[in-house]
Amino acid sequence: AAARPLVAGDPFCGFAAERADNSLGAAGAIRVRTKAEGYAWLPVTGISAAIDCVVPVFASDDDTFTTTRAANSFIGFGILYDPNMALTLVHYRAAKPLTALTDASVAHALNATFSDTEAEAALNALGTKVNSIIDVLEQHGLIKAA
Fold this sequence. Notes:
Radius of gyration: 21 Å
Shape: extended
Strand order of the largest sheet: 3-8-7-5-6-4
Order of helices and strands: EEEEEEEEH
Oligomer: single chain
Number of helices: 1
Largest sheet: 6 strands, mixed
C-alpha cells in the first residue's frame, strides 16, 4: 500500500513489515507492506506501571505513542506493561475505512400536521445514523461486534 509516516489524526494503517525508505525517490516509487493487526512492545507515554485493564493507545506521529486521545490516531489497546523494559504490549489494529455522517435533518417541527409517513422517514434516518455510529465504535474496538 502507498503510505507516509503517520501524522496525528491520520487513520492508523498498521506498522511497516520492513523498512521502506523512499527519501530519495519520487512519490509512489516504492510500495510499503504493512502488518494490519498484531502485538508490539512500544514505549507509551502515560503507562508506567502495571495495567489493571486495557488502555486505549494513540499515536501522535510514526514513533510516538501515548494514552492521550486529543488529535492523535487510535492504534489499539495496551494490555501489559513490562517495568524492566519500560514498554507496553499493545494489541494494534489498522483502522477500517469510515463512513462520514451528515447532521440529522431538523426540517420538520413536531406538530398536528406531522404525518405518519414523515415520522417513519425520520425514524428510519435516525436508525441509519445510529447504526453508522455503532459500526465506527466496533471498528475501533470500543464495543463488541454483535
